[in-house]
Amino acid sequence: MSFAYKNKIFYLDALPGLGNLEENVKKNFVATMEGHIKRLIYGAYFHPDLLCEMEESVPYSLNIDEFWHHTLPFVHKIFVVFLTNLNTGHMKLLYAANCCLSAEPETKRFLTDSEEVAVTLVNVLCQVPPNRLKNIVALVSDRNKMNVRALEDAEKMLGRNLPPVIFDSTHIASKFNMEKDPFTRASMEEILATLFKRESYKSQLDDIETMCNGSNYKTLQLLWGFSTSLEKILKKVFDIDASITTFNVGHLSNDKLEPYGRSAVSQMPFVEKELCAEVGIVHFLVYEVAIGLSCK
What we know:
Helix 1 (23-38) crosses helix 10 (273-294). The protein folds into two domains: 2-168 and 253-294, no CATH class; 169-252. The chain is α+β, with helices and mostly antiparallel strands. It has helices spanning 23-38, 49-52, 114-126, 145-158, 169-178, 182-193, 201-211, 217-240, 257-267, 273-294; strands spanning 2-5, 8-11, 40-41, 44-46, 60-70, 76-85, 91-100, 136-141, 165-167, 195-197, 246-248. Helix content is 46%, strand content 20%.
């Protein structure tokens, strides 16, 4: 059994881990894969229907990340945007782009840049139905320079404020560990475990900051910045619906994406540079479909 993309045939038996599927599973897999392929535009996957399916009283975030497949003999990674239900933590792939060096030797372009990331974010946000804009309460991103610049550029392109940006707590906690600062790390963990209340979330955050015994100014700045962003996000969460009286921010991170990404890229086959630009995204979607079917 097989599926096709750009006149190339992909046989399931030739893909790692998919050779021994039962016939009915193969049919379901191919049908789902063909649906994903129909959403490929200029080599990038985009599923805007997910934005229309957001529930009226549920807060969501857009989570930005990169999955590195390999760096030698050339760099190959997948840039992704996931839509996360902040009540359940359930994440759905909204956008994915294949990023690799061009096969042309004169091309020096190094993968994605801030402008491309900004354009992607603007395109995604422009597809959010007007009556669901309030439900996107946060953008979750790493603290790398490219993403920081991209978020600034996206706001200028969009012509209105982006949802509040919060840097991934998993990466911030790693920074605390590198700085050997257990106090700010403990305060971060307390923030993530706290059940914030509509009438007192500001004072709850203030209390956690005040009780922090850290003295490292670099890590304290990160904690204060995280807390400031979180206050804006909590306001948006409670503004969605009067019935939301408490909220936990434990799902407001990319911690689930890290193992997901490692699993996906570890199973993607290596292809030569000449083919990577065309089929790399297909190999990623193969395992996105496999993971999705295995969870049903």
